Amino acid sequence: MNSVLVAQDLGKRYGRRWALRDCSLEIPAGHVVGLVGPNGAGKTTLLKLAAGQLVPSEGRLTVLGGQPDGSASQLAKVGFVAQDTPAYSGLSVEEHLRLGARLNPGWDAELARDRIAKLGLDPRQRAGKLSGGQRAQLALTLGLAKRPELLILDEPVASLDPLARREFLQGLMEAVVDHDFSVVLSSHLVSDLERTCDYLIVLIGSRVQVAGEVDKLLSTHHRLTGPRRDHLPSDQHVVSATHTDRQSTFVIRTDSPIHDPSWAVTQLTLEDLVLAYMATPGRVHAGPTLEVQR
C-alpha cells in the first residue's frame, strides 16, 4: 500500500457552515506525517473523518484501502488520540486496559501492561487523579495497544508542559520503531514536528499548500535577500516576498542551483518554511502532483 489516506474533493458541512470543503490530498504510508495549519483550516475535521468519527457530506475518502465507515474491521486498523486525550475519570488505569481489550479484537495486552509499568503508572489509580501528562500517556497506550496500521493524533500534547510533551513524543517514536506503523500528527508546535516527523503537510482553508518529505522540502526551499526586485526567474517559485525601498527578501522553492551573486542565500528551518506558507493563505503551492496542519 502506497497511501494510508486518499481524499478527493472531500467536504464536511454542519448546517450551512462548511468545516472542510474541496479537500484533496494523499498521505503516504510508512511515514510520521506532520499536519499543520491555522485554526479553521479543517485539520481536526479531516482527522475525525479519517478515524470514522464523522461522515463526509461530499467527496471521497479512503483510509488504508477501505471506507472509514465505522465498521469493526476498519476501526481496528486505525488508532485515534484526540487533543483532550480523553479518559474516563472514574475508571482506573487497569479498567481502561480491560475496556480496551474488550473493544479491540487485536488488543496487545502485553504491550499495554509493559508500557504502563515502564511509565510507572499505578494500575489502581483512577484516571481523574492522573496528571495531564499521565492521562496523555494512558491515551497513547490505549491507541498503541490496538496495534493499528495507522495512528492519528490530533494535537495530543497541546496542553502539556515541555517535559511531558517530550516524554509523550519520545514514547511515540519508540513505538514507531518497535512496531512499524504509519502516523499522522496534527500540531501547532513546529518544534514537536521537527523532533518527530519526516513528512509535512501544510493545510490552509482545506487546501494543501505544500507537502513532501521534510529533508527534501528543506533542501529545495531558500531565503534570498538582495537588491529590490519584483520578479524572479520562472524556475524559482516564490512562496512569500517582502520588500523595502532598496531590498527584497523572498522565500522560494526551486530544484535549480542559485548562481546570482547579488543574492544572499540562507537555508530555512522547518518553522521558517511553515510560516512562509501560512503567510500567504489561499495560494496553492503543492504543484500538479501532490507530494504528500487544521
Structure in words:
This protein folds into two domains: 3-212, Rossmann fold (3-Layer(aba) Sandwich); 213-278, no CATH class. The protein is built from nine helices and 13 strands. The protein has helices at 43-50, 72-75, 93-103, 109-119, 132-145, 162-179, 190-196, 214-220, 270-278; strands at residues 3-14, 17-28, 32-36, 58-63, 78-81, 150-154, 182-186, 199-204, 207-213, 221-227, 237-243, 247-253, 264-267. A six-stranded mixed sheet has the order 5-6-7-3-8-9, sandwiched between helices. A four-stranded antiparallel sheet has the order 11-12-10-13. The protein has a three-stranded antiparallel sheet with strand order 2-1-4, covered by helices on one side. The radius of gyration is 21 Å and the shape is elongated. Residues 284-294 have low confidence and may be disordered.
